Give the backbone structure.
Amino acid sequence: KLRQYERWFLGVSITVIMTYLTIQASYLSDSIADKYRIRGLKPTFWGERYADLNDGQLNSFRSGFVLLTFVAVTFVALRKLLVRNKPDLKSQLYYYLVFGLGFGFYLHGPGVLFLLGMVVVNYLLAENLRGQKFFPLVVWVLNLGFLLVTEYYNGYQFGQVSRSLEFLDRVPVEMKWHRITNMCMLKVVSFAIDYHWKTLNMIKDTKEKHMTKCIECTEEIDCLKLRTEEHSNHYSLLSFAAYFFYPPLYLAGPTTCYNAWISQVQRPQKTFDTKRLGVYIFRFCVCFFLLEWFIHNLYFPTIANNKHNRDIWEEFGAYELVMAAYFILKWIWLKFLVIWRYFRIWALLDGIESPENMGRCMSNNYCFEGFWRMWHRGFNQWLIRYLFVPLGGSKYKIFNIWVVFGFVALWHDLSLNLLAWGWGMCIFIMPEVLVKRYFNQKKFENFRNTYLYFYLSVFAGGFYVILMIIANLVGFSFGIAGLEIAMQNLSSFEGTLMVLKGFFLVIFPSVILMFNLRNEEIRKYGRELGY
């Protein structure tokens, strides 16, 4: 009971503090806009307020929202009509493929043929080499190489195949086909490796385990994890191509493994009933409204990311830089939350459940491991299944995380800076992994139940929150130059006092609340759940 009161007190207190900081950030943003000319702001329908539309992804999503929603409604309505008249699996797969190819042609024009070639080549490889020990390595090397070369050359041209096809390169498109190859690679690897494991019968039956321990599984409902772990009996060129071009998850995910996807085509998901889906859509609308408020009131993202605004942030003090760095990361989280949930809702309306990519609020994390486990969660689960576990899993974690984060960096962009950032994450994660492993030993079982251990953990968590803010300052905001300015300002007496006040008044109680929430999840469900 005491813990419950403590959670309520901390929750209300931190909500008040964060609301106050958000209002202060808005005032700061307005004062900057009054003092400087911020590039990247554009007028919108929100009266006299300008909006931060500097980000290409968000701008494309907002401008295409109405058309995309019309496509989504049409897709779901036609699919339900088809199921009513032809409920067989083959008809549904043909529908997905035809609609997906049409959607792909609208986006990429003739370039969709390159992606179709990617499907055919990988299917032929899987059909002929599955079951061989070297097959997973072939899949990885071939597709990672294709991804990197495609990124390096900005895609391929039809004119490189034949001069008589050069006219196809001049067809106007909404999106270059090679901008989607990183998402496509995840689907290719998933299909090929799942097919390989099916051939070798390597996946164990976990149905009984789920029925006794899973909080979602019942006699009628199979959770997404169980569907992922089960073998499929359908590995064909038609099912692979339909999975590859499946419209709701084509542009942005969330990433869904082949086994889970084909299982839900046959037996639509039941974890989201009408009421739960309605609540989920309402929450999406609230988040979308918050994002709209954000881009109309907090201009830190365009100040940091538009090169023409460099003169503005170079004048920032430590307070402005830290405030901006935090809210830029909040903006990135909110942007992807809205985009990913939109496409997840589209798939749910079609009876396909995909992973929730943002498992927790961005501010509800106190360690790097937990942060990355709950950020782009579908991709994280894909990495665990197809890369982390095959490399040895937790037994060799301090070694294989370098491979995993190296791949994550290259998957996002062919950039040495991003590769350095990915391996920089490993430097932060390694001490965390080693300390956790040390204190998880049986000889510390009693010590882990003491208040001293709890508050040492909270203090360490607070320190890691500061490290995550610094990492964001470098990786997503103002770069090394911004970090140097921040360090110069923070080294002063006033700067040090500001950090201490922020740590003990905001970060420290926030981490106590995070630990309380995790412990309550473990007490109720036997494990941490996420949001």
Remarks:
- Residues 197 and 431 are 34 Å apart (CA to CA).
- The chain is about 70% helix and 0% strand.
